[in-house]
Automatic annotation (TrEMBL):
GO terms for cellular component: ATP-binding cassette (ABC) transporter complex. It is a multi-pass membrane protein. Keywords: Antibiotic resistance, Cell membrane, Membrane, Transmembrane, Transmembrane helix, Transport. GO terms for biological process: response to antibiotic. It holds the Pfam family ABC2_membrane. This is Transport permease protein. The lineage of its organism: Bacteria, Bacillati, Actinomycetota, Actinomycetes, Motilibacterales. It is found in: Cell membrane; Membrane. Residues 38-259 form the ABC transmembrane type-2 domain.
């Protein structure tokens, strides 16, 4: 009997793309949107912070950049919102593992890697929604930027979320559920502060600026703001994004393989 079942399982055709599909991604997006905490921290808080703080800097120039304070703040908060959205989506695997959802999925034809790719896609969808919410808020409040700056700044803010999707997955697989959510919030706040999202790096002491160059937020935020500040995109900025992207993806991949063997 067991041999027959084994043969039948062996004969079962593998799903196309490992089961990855638009239907799966849309279902995961709808599940994520049911989480009110996610909606508040990705779609409400960044525009609210801009309304309360960033919009007040309209007309002020950021020292050493020549950029308008409101526009600078808008781009920074777009990076922050996309970062939180992507990280939250990745870290959700921790909660799903604790609830036994990962084991349930092992009983379906869905391949583990397809599940991970779907999570990354969900993170990027949420990140895009967060960036667009910031764009609409800035446009309604009269932030002045050239068309090229709007396009480049916010496209980079969105694509940079890939680094943090990997970060969220790494945390979700490494830490127990309760600890994951407790660690991620303060860690994102620290990375944002030292990466220059809440306070422009040009206004911080020299030592802090040097430390900031090695934080995960520095590369993405600096490249996103480069069209606005008319600054050069340096090798250091690109290297920062690549380095942290590889580190987070490597840690997430290793933790994922370990978890797959165990489950």
């Amino acid at each position: 009997m067991s041999l027959a079942l084994a043969d039948r399982a062996t004969e079962r055709p593998l799903p196309r793309l490992g089961g990855l599909s638009t239907t799966l991604v849309s279902l995961e997006v709808r599940r994520a949107l049911r989480n009110r905490r996610v909606l508040i921290f990705t779609l409400v808080m960044p525009p609210l912070l801009f309304l309360l703080i960033g919009a007040q800097q309209k007309g002020d120039q950021i020292k050493g950049t020549g950029a308008d304070g409101a526009a600078y703040s808008l781009v920074s908060l777009a990076v922050y919102g996309a970062m939180v959205a992507a990280t939250s989506s990745g870290a959700a695997v921790g909660a799903e593992r604790a609830q036994g959802w990962s084991r349930q999925l092992r009983l379906t034809p869905l391949r583990p890697w397809a599940y991970i790719v779907a999570k990354v896609c969900v993170g990027m969808v949420l990140a895009l929604a967060s960036v667009l919410a910031e764009v609409v808020t800035g446009a309604v409040l009269g932030v002045s930027m050239g068309a090229r700056q709007w396009l480049l700044c916010f496209t980079v803010a969105w694509l940079g979320a890939l680094v943090f999707a990997a970060f969220g997955l790494a945390v979700g697989y490494l830490l127990p559920t309760d600890n994951a959510m407790q660690v991620i919030g303060p860690l994102l706040a620290v990375m944002s502060t030292f990466g220059g999202l809440f306070v422009p790096l040009e206004l911080l002491p020299h030592t802090v600026r040097m430390v900031a160059h090695w934080t995960p937020v520095y590369g993405v935020s600096s490249i996103a703001r480069a069209p606005l500040t008319h600054g050069d995109v340096t090798i250091g900025m690109i290297g920062n994004v690549v380095l942290w992207g590889v580190v987070f993806a490597g840690v997430a991949s290793r933790a994922f393989r370990r978890d797959t063997r165990r489950v």
